[in-house]
Amino acid sequence: MILLQDVPDGYEYCFAGNGKCPKASSCLRAIAAQLLSESEDPQPQSVRAVNPFYVGSLSGSSTCARYRSNEQLHYARGMTRLFDEVPAKLLSTVRHRVMGCFSCERYYYHCRKGERPISPEEQQRIARVFKAVGISTKPKFDRYEYAVAW
Question: Organism's domain of life (predicted)?
Answer without folding.
Answer: Bacteria
